[in-house]
Amino acid sequence: MTTPHPRKQRLAEFIRAIWDEGDADAADRFIAETYTIHHDPGDPWHGQTLDRAGFRDRLVKSRAAFPDQRFHTQAMFADGDSVVMTWLWSATHSGDIPGFPATGRTIRMSGATVYGFDRDDRLTGHWQITDRLGVYQQLQANLMAAE
Amino acid sequence: MTTPHPRKQRLAEFIRAIWDEGDADAADRFIAETYTIHHDPGDPWHGQTLDRAGFRDRLVKSRAAFPDQRFHTQAMFADGDSVVMTWLWSATHSGDIPGFPATGRTIRMSGATVYGFDRDDRLTGHWQITDRLGVYQQLQANLMAAE
Questions:
Q1: A38 within domain boundaries
Q2: Between B132-146 and A132-146, two packed helices, what is the crossing angle to 10 degrees?
Q3: For the whole model, what pTM was predicted?
Q4: Domain tally for chain A?
């Protein structure tokens, strides 16, 4: 339908390498010198600007409870210096979260993320909404089922 | 910076007339013959396709507890037949919600919405994520403060 969009392709590569595969060393290829979490309710780094070491730390900690997580891109929209991605997500809850011990059950989530790019096509930050109530309800239900 | 984008302007007019002001009669100007809620976790009409009467019914019911609600657009992104809008929202909780009687307190929310347009620039539906956990936490805190 449309010609491939370089930044959409780059974002797809970033999601796969960084968030799906958890390749922290690849962060330097994709991330600008600093990366700002402009808006991300519930994310411990909401509002912070991270250097690359900080980004790798957030990556490792964010994936710890869900090491097999996969993003399923629904659509991408490019405008100006941004690419918006709508997504579904699924993962096995295989690491402990405060209040929610690992259950081995599948957790599903959906969200929408605006990614900013610099002139070198590196990511400068994001603005994100996730359906964290949906996640919380699944964690609660699994906890009660395990008791 | 950029030239005005007709569909972004039209979306801004839709948000103001329909969702901020609650002008149900204006729906016919903005909505296609049918309107599909493709994805909207927590919305009672998630997954449904509505005709214009159904859209007006959803509008009236959605605004009942928050009649002075206002959307504060953060950014818009146009690509293909879609415009994505990131937004903050605030409203006085002045009508009852099941389990949450009106408190007169301000509730805040953020979200991201992908709107689809047809060739006549009418809206055909949306894909949306809202931070409903943030809303739930505020409603809970206000309920406990009132007890």
A1: yes
A2: 70
A3: 0.96
A4: 1
